């Protein structure tokens, strides 16, 4: 994944989507990308409880909604003093987003989360949930307010080819940033060992060797390798990701994902979506067809 030539911003015009919108325009300028702003209207006729009244002008109602959305998006463009293509379509949001991203050959989809919950937690929402499952395009999920370009970046690896692509994407997209590469290792049957702490420490040395070898297999220059800060701990990927994000006050976490059939598989495993929703930072899901 190189610099994104085309970015698709999927917005529902909510307050949470404003953060994704800010980030999309920031990245557009940073990478000199073409930006497409998409808003999907769910079918008004199908969901309107007064549709039985025959004389109500539903077509006009749809047109008024479209005009209102277009006016709002154009106003936003003026505020950003930037140019972007504006698309307004009707249908199932995640299906429309994937179709538009494919038709316009977009490299990255940017979207926000559904809503805040108690103590700053949030839900991804149905649309983001479906995009994580089915989209062939890499996905940036924005949760935090935009203050500056991303500076504190964490990359999760499980030493797989999928996570290798995530590391390469992070190196390319953020060429002047230190990258915290996080590897959670296991210590099989540690409960059956007399000196458990010593055994876990031995496995840490093995994990360090394996991670170093893994990073050596990635085609990079010495200056790029020098930007890695390795974190190796005996833990699960999800728990370690939470700890590292909090410890380093990370602004972005990068993970790898591949599609198998119609289902996506993350290096986080089956708890991927819940894990992303629990992190107090934005998340870049780098797609791979491996």
Question: Can you describe this structure?
Answer:
With 290 residues, the chain is α/β, with parallel strands linked by helices. It has two domains: 1-145, Rossmann fold; 150-290, Rossmann fold. The chain has helices spanning 15-31, 44-47, 58-80, 93-103, 126-134, 161-173, 196-216, 222-225, 237-247, 272-278; strands at residues 6-10, 34-41, 85-90, 108-112, 115-116, 122-123, 138-142, 153-157, 179-185, 228-234, 252-260, 263-266, 282-288. Strands 1, 2, 3, 4, 7, 8, 9, 10, 11, 12 and 13 form an eleven-stranded mixed beta sheet that branches. A two-stranded antiparallel sheet has the order 5-6. α4 (93-103) crosses α5 (126-134). The longest helix has 23 residues, at 58-80. The protein is elongated. The two termini are 14 Å apart. Mean pLDDT is 83; it is low at 48-53 and 117-122.
Number of domains: 2
Q: Tell me the helix content.
A: 40-55%
The major β-sheet equals: 11 strands, mixed
CATH third-level topology of the largest domain = Rossmann fold
Over the alpha carbons, how many angstroms does the gyration radius reach? 21 Å
Q: Percent of residues in beta strands? A: 15-25%
Order of helices and strands: EHEHHEHEEEHEEHEHHEHEEHE
Helix/strand-derived class?
alpha/beta
SS elements, strand count: 13
CATH architecture level-2 label of the largest domain: 3-Layer(aba) Sandwich
CATH classification class of the largest domain: Alpha Beta
